[in-house]
Amino acid sequence: xxxxxxxxxxxxxxxxxxxxxxxxxxxxxxxxxxxxxxxxxxxxxxxxxxxxxxxxxxxxxxxxxxxxxxxxxxxxxxxxxxxxxxxxxxxxxxxxxxxxxxxxxxxxxxxxxxxxxxxxxxxxxxxxxxxxxxxxxxxxxxxxxxxxxxxxxxxxxxxxxxxxxxxxxxxxxxxxxxxxxxxxxxxxxxxxxxxxxxxxxxxxxxxxxxxxxxxxxxxxxxxxxxxxxxxxxxxxxxxxxxxxxxxxxxxxxxxxxxxxxxxxxxxxxxxxxxxxxxxxxxxxxxxxxxxxxxxxxxxxxxxxxxxxxxxxxxxxxxxxxxxxxxxxxxxxxxxxxxxxxxxxxxxxxxxxxxxxxxxxxxxxxxxxxxxxxxxxxxxxxxxxxxxxxxxxxxxxxxxxxxxxxxxxxxxxxxxxxxxxxxxxxxxxxxxxxxxxxxxxxxxxxxxxxxxxxxxxxxxxxxxxxxxxxxxxxxxxxxxxxxxxxxxxxxxxxxxxxxxxxxxxxxxxxxxxxxxxxxxxxxxxxxxxxxxxxxxxxxxxx
Length: 541
Fold this sequence. Notes:
By secondary structure, this protein is α/β, with parallel strands linked by helices. The protein has helices at 4-20, 25-34, 65-93, 106-124, 131-153, 155-198, 207-241, 292-301, 327-340, 355-365, 390-402, 409-415, 420-425, 433-460, 473-478, 480-489, 513-527; strands at residues 248-252, 257-265, 277-281, 306-310, 347-352, 370-376, 467-472, 496-502, 530-532, 535-537. Helices cover 55% and strands 10% of the residues. It comes from Hyaloscypha bicolor E. This is Mitochondrial integral membrane protein-like protein.
């Protein structure tokens, strides 16, 4: 490195030579001061050409306009991403017009969170670039690019994510590329200024710089792991999307989303007599993974002639609905889907658990087409607070936020052999983001909108509709309040056919042999009852 004294002596010699040639030092220096470059107006003009110490604050990549503008743009992108992040967070609870995604909405939120994390890391460690950060950001960019291609290439994923999800992942790809570009430019600027001001690029780092590099690298590696998990879960979703539904999907609610409806069997008996169709409404989980055994046995042994079922929004093959979404809204879209499927009553409504809330609202709004109600361990409207508690809502939201990582689905698929059937409607169905979003929607309005709707439904329920209640003996003995509310539901109409308590059955009564036998028996009575002057006559054992 040239010494300060040597540099000054060299300047004096130059000045003397210029004086001998009749040149003014002020005249010569003026073009150097006024010469425009990207440092103009950032640093005061130098009075000498002495090299600075590497630790001098003036030795900084911020001396370059290009570096400063990169930082300004990064701040702008961060603010823009944060606003989008807030909008996506709000849309989980209340869907803004035009922003409804037919998927869960958790994936686009995850990609935006990852994008925001990348931008914040760049801002926090802007002046300490490193090769490790560049490589990690490049890996993240490649993974996100694969995700973008996957979403665009798989039709079902493209439909579920919609323009919101596609925009989120495209933005994540662009920002990841931006972080690589920014880090390289800052590295160049840092080296440029070190050479200009200290005479050589600095290869050493202070302890503070090493801590910054270590911290940024660790956080970026964590973000890379998150990107890998998102990609793996997206691949599972692509695999699950290839499983065709047994029925058909129908657009509802102004063609905003689709509802899956399946019907099978004959609407008439061997003598040509029209029989009611049993319309099943599942409880907490998909109908295909639980009550379908009752329906298939009923068809096989002649207890019922024809049945239909529909997956509520967000469950199995149905899309998620916009938020908020109440039981009354679900009853309306079910009516629309059945109409589009060309299905007509009369109906025998068979429901379980919370599904009975939906069936009761449907019954009150289509009373003339309902020939009977069979409710299996039904949930009473006074107990809706149990599924609408704030704690449960928060846990569902938190579970939904981390669901795109596949922390439960990926190990189950890799080590437990869970199939796509398990994930769509079987044992692992509760792990999907769509299902979690549906239960979150259910929880948010359970004790408000839904409770008001089912209370109103009770007031307009047809009094002469035949009613069967089948209760879990275990639940009745365990919870006195549950037993009291089951008894109250027997007064839902004035025509109670029977209230059966299956002694050893859990809440999902059909899981026991005695429970299935009782359900099939009561369904047969409702379906094959003789109708006289607008009413049904029953013979019960």
